[in-house]
Amino acid sequence: MTRISQVEDRGAVVAWSPIYSHADVIALGTKDSGGVGFDDYGGELELCDMKITCPEGSQPTPQVIGSIKTTTRFSSLGWTPGNASVADNFKMGFIAGGMTDGKINIWDAESIVSSPSSAAVASIDNHTGGAVSALQFNPHPTSANLLASGGSDGGVLITSLEKPDQPNVFVPAPDQPSQGAEITQIGWNTQVAHIVASAAKNGTAFVWDLRAKKPWCELRCESNYSAVSDLAWNPNQGLHLLTASDDDRNPVIKLWDLRSSTTIPLATLEGHTQGVLSMAWCPHDDTLLMSCGKDNRTLLWDLTTLKPIVEIPSSDHDDTSSANASSSAVYGNLGSSQQKRFDVQWSPHRRGVVSTCSFDRKVQAHSVIGVATKCGRPPKWMKTPGGVSCGFGGTVTSFGATHRFITINSHIEQPELKQASMQFEYQISGGDYAGFCGTMVENATKASDHKEAQVWGFMKIIFDTNARELLLKYLGFDSDKISQIASEFADNGAAADGTANPSSPSMSEKAEDIVKEALLVGNFEAAVDCCFRNGNLADALVLASCGGAELWAKTQAEYFAREAQKRPFLSIVSAVIHNQLEDLVAASDPSKWQETLAILSTYGKSEEFPLLCLALGNRLEGAGDGASASLCFMCALNLDRAVKHWKTQLEKADQVAGKRDLLALHSFVQKVTVMLEAIGPNTQLDSEIAELFSDYAKALSEQGLLVYASKYCKSDSQQCNELKDRIYRSKDGRNCSNLMASPPAFPYTLDKVEIIPVASVQAQVQHEETQQQATTTQQQHDVSQQQQQQQQQTNGVAQLPPGWVALQD
User: Fold this and answer.
1) pLDDT at position 297, please?
2) Is 60 exceeded by the pLDDT of residue 674?
3) Which of 576, 581, 587, 533 is closest to 558 using CA atoms?
4) Can you tell me the distance from the alpha carbon of 710 to that of 712, in angstroms, rounded to the nearest whole number?
C-alpha cells in the first residue's frame, strides 16, 4: 500500500504548494458540479493540508484550511511563489485557475486562508471559445511571475504578473498562427527560462522561444493526428522532452532529444494498454516517471531501462473488493472504470510523494519511496546530497546537491600552530637567527617566563663573535662596571691617606737578622720559610719571587693552603694560576653556577671551554637543576645534552594536555632548529629528536604547510619516509627545494605479481599428482617390507641388514 493521505468526494484539479513552509498543502479546484442533478453550482477553490508529515503511527487526516467559491468550474490550476519583487507581499504566493468559461482567475493564497473575500487579485479573459485547458507558472525563481496558458481555441498566451493587479498578456509568437487544436498541456523548460512547450489534440507539440518570439521547433508526435495528452521536460536536461499519446491504438510515451531529431523520438515507453491521460517527471530523480491511463493503471517507470517498475494500486484491497462487488452487481464492470486516474503530480518538496486524481472523486497522496527501490537501486533523493573527502595536507574536497561543482578547500585544524610556524619561518628566512632569539627573549619576558627568556638569551649569545664577553655581561659581570667599583672602594680599616693597613704582623729583630743572613748567602728558601713561621706571608711571597720557579710554586701552594679558608676568592686564583679549572668546577657550589660559568668564560682556554661547560652542566644535572644544566650544555654546543631538558618540558606539556601538545612541540623544534644553525646545519640528529621532528612535520602537513613540513623530515622511520614521499608527489612538491634536489626513495617494497600461464598450472598439477603417486607407491612398498620382516622374525630367521630383502623359493 502506497497511499498516505486521501481527500474524499473531490472531483478536482490539483496544484501543490511551492512554499516549503506549507509543503503538505495542495490546492483543489472543482472540476465537476458536485451536485446530484444537472444544475451547475459553480466551483470551489480549496486549500487542503494533506498532513503528510504527521507523527508516525497516526493516520493522516486531510484538513481544509481555506476555501473560496467561484462562479464557474476549473479546467486547470497552477501555484507559484512569485519572484522576489512580489514575494514579500504574497507570503503564500499566487494561485491561478483556468476556468471553463475561458477566464483565468488569480488569487492570493494567504488571503484564501485568512480573508477569502479579499483573495481575488486579477481576472484575465483573453482566451475565447472555450475553457482554459492548461496553464503553468514558470519554475525559475527570477521568472516565477510568468504564467503560460493554453485554451480550447488552440491559442497559447503568456501572462506577466509583475504587477499582479495589472496583468500583462502577450502571445509567444505574434506572427505565428495558433496551434490549430485545443491545447492539452503547457510546460516550461526546466533549464531555460524563456522556453515553453505546448501540446495539442492534433498530435503536435510546439516549443516556443519567447526571446526570439517564434517557435523553436514543432514535433509531430502522432502520425494519425490523435491527441498529445501530456508533455513533461526533463528536470535536469533542458533538451529532453516527453510526450504522451491519448490514442488507445498506440498508448505510448515518447522521449525526444531535441538536439538530435524533432521527427524521430529517442525512445518509446510501452506499458499502457489504452491511452495515456497524464504523466509527471520526478523533480528529485530524473530516472523516475509516473503515468496514468485509460487502462486504469498508474505506473512508475524506470527511465534507465524504459520499463515500469511497479503499478500503483487504484485503491486499498478491501475498498477495491467492496467497490467492485457492489458496482458489478448493479452496473457490471463500471466500478473499475470509475477508479481511473486522470492526473498525477509530484510534490515539489516532499521527495517520493505524488498526488493522483481519479474519476471516482478521490484525491490521494502516495509515497513511492519503498516501491521505487524495486528498480535495483535507491532513488536519487536517498543518495547522499553532498559529500566530503579529506585528503593529504588538510585538503577537503566537497560537493553538494545545489550546484555542479567540486570545491577544494584547506581545513586548518590547528590555526595557532600554523600561525606560529609561519611566523617562525618568516623570521628566520633572512638568516638573522640572533635577531629572532632577541624577539623570543622579549616575548618570554613579557610573559614573565624567565626560564624561557634565559634559554633564548643564551641562544642569542652563541651567534655573537664575542660570545664569551657577552656571556659575562649576561651573567651580571660587567668588566668596566666592576673596575669602576673597585677603584672607588675604600674599606673602613684603611689609613687616612688611602693606604691599607699592614696585613702581616711586624717581624722581630732576630727574625729580620736571620732573614737578612739567609739572603746574604743566597738561601731564599730558608728566608721564605722563616717568614712563613713568623706569619709574614706577604714578605714570603716577595722573597719567593726572587728564588726561582720551584720556590715560587712551592710558596704559592703554601700560601693558598693557609689563606683559602679565610679568603674564598683565593681558590679561584689558585685554580687559574695552576690551570685547575676542572677541579674548581668539581668543588663549585651548584647554587652559584653563574659565578663558576663566568670564571670558565674568563679564564678557560678556547679548546677547553666546551669541556669545562659540559663538566659544569653534569654537576648541575647531578644536583637536580636540569634547566641550568641545559644552559651550560648550550655553551658547550652539545645539542644532545641540552635537548634532554627540553624533551622533559615537552613530555610534561603532553601529560597536562592529555595528548601531543603541538605548540609545545613547536617550541621544542624552534630551539633545536636554532641550536642546529649555531652548531652546523649538517649535524646528525639523535633518533629520538629526529622522530619528534617527524611528528612536527606531520602536524605541519595536516595544516597545509607542506613546504615547511619537508624541512623537518629528518627521521629514517617508515612513517617519515612515507611523509616525504607524499610531500614530494603533492601539488607543493615542486616548491620543496630539499626534496627536489634529492628525491626521496620510494617508501614501499614493490612486488611483481605475475599471472601463471595455464600450461604451467597444468604442468604443476601433473607434477604434484606424479609426486603423490610416487609417495603412495613408496608407502605401499614400505608396508610390504615391514610385513616380510615381521614374517621372517616369526619364522626364526635372523634380521637382515637395512636394504636387504630375503629371497624365498
Assistant:
1) 94
2) yes
3) 533
4) 5
Rounded to a whole number, what is the largest CA-CA distance in the chain?
167
Model pTM greater than 0.70?
A: no
Mark out the alpha helices in 294-381 (DSSP H runs): 317-331, 334-338
> How distant, in Å, are the alpha carbons of 298, 760, 763 from that of 757?
56, 5, 10
Q: Which DSSP letter does residue 264 get? A: S
Burial 182-217 (b: 16+ CB within 10 A, else e): bbbbbbbbbbbbbbbbbbbbbbbbbbbbbeeeebbe
On the 0-12 / 13-18 / 19+ scale of CB atoms within 10 A, 605 is: exposed
Mean pLDDT along residues 619-646: 91
Range list of β-strands (E), 202-358 = 204-209, 214-220, 228-233, 240-245, 252-257, 267-270, 276-281, 288-293, 298-302, 307-312, 341-346, 353-358
Q: What is the pLDDT of residue 500?
A: 44
Q: Are 155 and 139 in contact (CB under 8 A)?
A: no
CB of 103 within 8 A of CB of 55? Answer: no
Amino acid in the structure at residue 90: F
Mean pLDDT of 195-201: 95
Q: What is the pLDDT of residue 511?
A: 67
CA distance 650 to 144: 64
Q: In angstroms, what is the C-alpha Rg of the chain?
A: 52
Burial annotation 242-274 (CB, 10 A radius, 16+ → b, else e) = bbbbbbeeebbbbbbbbeeebeebeeebebbeb
Answer for the pair 583, 572: CB distance below 8 angstroms, yes or no. no
Q: Which residues contact 738 (CB under 8 A, 6 or more apart)?
A: 710, 711
Q: What is the pLDDT of residues 552-605, one digit of tens each?
A: 777 767 766 666 666 555 556 556 666 767 877 887 888 888 888 888 888 788
| Kind plus residue range of the DSSP H or E element containing 706 | helix 706-711
Alpha-carbon span 41 to 713, nearest angstrom? 87
